[in-house]
Amino acid sequence: MAKQLGGACSRFVVTEFSEKATRAMKDVLGIETVKFDYITDRLQDVFPEKFDLVLLRSSIIFCPKLDELVASLRAVLSSGGHVLVETIIPTLGEVLWWQQMEYKFPIIYSQETVEKYFYKHGFSLVAGYRDYGSYTAIKARGVKGLLKKGYTWLVDYPMVLLYYLFARKGRVSIDQGLHHKMLTQIWKKTDLAENVQEQSYRNFEAGPINKSTHFSFMYNGYIRK
């Protein structure tokens, strides 16, 4: 994405936690990259200049201090600047899926929490949409190969259904659906006394209509949308 946007921007900077990845992007791809840690760093300390657009793509799941991050975003944005946020939001299916990954992120923010902090720090919601995908379709590693298919249908999915029944009985206070759920929002920095949501959310279900020709089913057509 940085390579694609580089020609359309006067400056495009990628922040990255891994120092090794930071060096590789600079040396191999020629991308301006800055090492940045959500826990120890603040954007305004790293960047004295202002930006028109900040992208947070599948990233805030590693940020334990979202309130402070959003305040930092306001500090580094130019007047009328925008922030794009793309993140998963809690569902039972999402939690069960990520429990099986080798490396897990520490937190999943709800849509209500994300919105609370952006409104608090003077942003208006320009646009937003939600993507819904099935548990087994998004869980790509579980549907490729005969052994993985067997494990998915004979062990994994029955276990998921058992968790689902217990969750329904216990009234777990998250979305109890066995689906993947992705939230994408565009926020605008404003100086209004009361910040607003400018338009209603759009909801996309996984399926052939939204299927991307580039990234297959598991990315649910983000490029087309």
CATH class of the domain at 36-89 and 102-132 and 180-219: Alpha Beta
Instruction: Report the span from N to C terminus.
Output: 16 Å
Q: Indicate the percent of residues in helices.
A: 25-40%
Q: Taking Cα atoms only, what radius of gyration do you get, to the nearest Å?
A: 19 Å
Major β-sheet profile: 5 strands, mixed
Question: What is the CATH homologous superfamily assignment of the domain at 36-89 and 102-132 and 180-219?
Answer: Vaccinia Virus protein VP39
Question: Overall 3D geometry?
Answer: globular
What's a concise summary of this model?
This protein has 225 residues and is an alpha/beta fold. The chain has helices spanning 2-6, 19-29, 43-46, 66-76, 92-98, 111-120, 135-138, 146-170; strands spanning 14-16, 33-35, 51-57, 77-88, 123-134, 179-189, 202-205.
List the helices and strands and how they pair.
Elements: H1 2-6, E1 14-16, H2 19-29, E2 33-35, H3 43-46, E3 51-57, H4 66-76, E4 77-88, H5 92-98, H6 111-120, E5 123-134, H7 135-138, H8 146-170, E6 179-189, E7 202-205
Parallel strand pairs: 1-2, 3-4, 5-7
Antiparallel strand pairs: 4-6, 5-6
Keyphrases for this structure?
two-stranded parallel ribbon, alpha/beta, disordered C terminus, five-stranded mixed beta sheet, 225 residues
Structure description:
With 225 residues, this protein is α/β, with parallel strands linked by helices. It has a domain at 36-89 and 102-132 and 180-219: 3-Layer(aba) Sandwich (Rossmann fold). Helices cover 34% and strands 23% of the residues. The protein has helices at 2-6, 19-29, 43-46, 66-76, 92-98, 111-120, 135-138, 146-170; strands spanning 14-16, 33-35, 51-57, 77-88, 123-134, 179-189, 202-205. It has a five-stranded mixed β-sheet. Strands 1-2 form a two-stranded parallel sheet. The protein is globular and about 55 Å long. It starts with a helix and ends in a 20-residue tail after the last strand. Residues 212-225 have low confidence and may be disordered.
